[in-house]
Design goal:
Layout (H helix, E strand, L loop, with lengths): L9 H50 L55 E2 H7 L11 E10 L7 E10 L4 E9 L3
Antiparallel strand pairs: 1-2, 2-3, 3-4
Amino acid sequence: MWRANAGLSLLEYVVGLAILAIVLVGAGLFFLSQPRQLDPVFQFRAVSLAEALAEQVLAVKYDAENDPYAAEHKRCDIGAAPDCLNAPTAGADARLKDFSHVDDFRLWCGDDNAIAGNALADQLKLSQTLLYTRYRVQTCVTLNTVDPNAPFKEVTISIADQSGADLSFILHRYNIR
């Protein structure tokens, strides 16, 4: 007469553990990949913030010593005109409306001077400024005089999020009217 076992065999136990491990690893990988799936949204917001800031950089004049309405020889670093200063004139607590030339954007250069994304979005009059809270924005301006006949200012816009990822954009602003 054949008698039925009341318990699990070792083989059934091992197979059950293997299936459970596969399910747990799959679920863990699914939940770990969730933040990465949202990265394009955050990158899009960073790009929109950088684009709005780049428009501001392009809207102001080249240099404090530059007169965009004067004849060509009056522009800074050309002929007898004064040198381009590459120094900000706005104060540390200045807002974008106080920035009169490209060098004012140097105020946000370096980790210690970076501006919060939501504060910048507010100054740029973007809607839903809370969407930009996780960002820190830096703008650094350097005067490039490789070609003395065509000096330009290189503006680097870097936007970093809380996770440490960052996007950088470089603008070249030439000394033209």
